[in-house]
Design brief:
D-Maltodextrin-Binding Protein, domain 2
């Protein structure tokens, strides 16, 4: 069995999902049939499906806006499009959110488009009998992280929130754990103390 260790800050929990985020910038919208138009950039990912369903079912119109979808390639294009007001919203990844924040780009995260399997949590997972109860307890622990940038960023954020320097934990990179059962299996080996999911 495993336990879930959560972040103390609610915003950080939303950052765990590995990850597509929607950002919204500016309130400038054009008028068409008296409904404001929001131009939304999409990336041809399964995470974009709710937008197309919302358009087909007229859900946005019921909420008082009309959405126009624009296909852009690359998160840099999406951020640039928002900054130029060519688009008002876009789906971007966690690294781009950190990058934008680091450059003081005024974005607002309004939704998390990540997903979990029923009965699972996103976050840092430990064995049920592990003496890890809070982020401070990560000091000296072996933390398994997949090779992607988002997972590493989440671990470093968790360490920082726990007051643990990155060099005071052993980060094990390159584990491919796309299924929840893989998390359980790697924890049972005892070779790692924490996995990120």
């Amino acid at each position: 069995m495993k336990r879930f260790i959560g972040f103390r800050k609610p915003a950080a929990c939303a950052l765990l999902a590995g990850f597509a985020l929607m950002l919204l910038a500016g309130a400038a919208c054009t008028r068409n049939k008296e409904l404001p138009v929001v131009r939304l950039a999409y990336t041809r990912s399964i995470d974009d499906l709710p937008f197309f369903v919302g358009m087909e079912e007229k859900l946005f119109e019921r909420e008082g806006v009309r959405v126009e979808m624009t296909r852009l390639t690359g998160n840099t294009s999406a951020l640039a499009g928002v900054m130029r007001n060519d688009i008002q919203a876009a789906v971007i990844g966690l690294p781009q959110v950190y990058s934008a924040a680091g450059q003081s780009i005024p974005i607002k995260v309004v939704a998390w488009l990540g997903r979990t399997h029923p009965g699972t949590h996103c976050g840092l997972h430990v064995r049920k009998d592990a003496p890890i109860y809070d982020l401070e307890d990560l000091r000296g622990k072996r933390i398994a992280v997949s090779g992607d940038v988002s997972s590493r960023m989440v671990v470093y954020q968790a360490l920082e929130q726990g007051g643990v320097a990155a060099e005071d934990a052993q980060i094990i990179l390159g584990l491919e754990m796309s299924e929840p059962m893989q998390h359980e299996a790697v924890l049972k080996t005892g070779k790692v103390d924490v996995v990120i999911a």
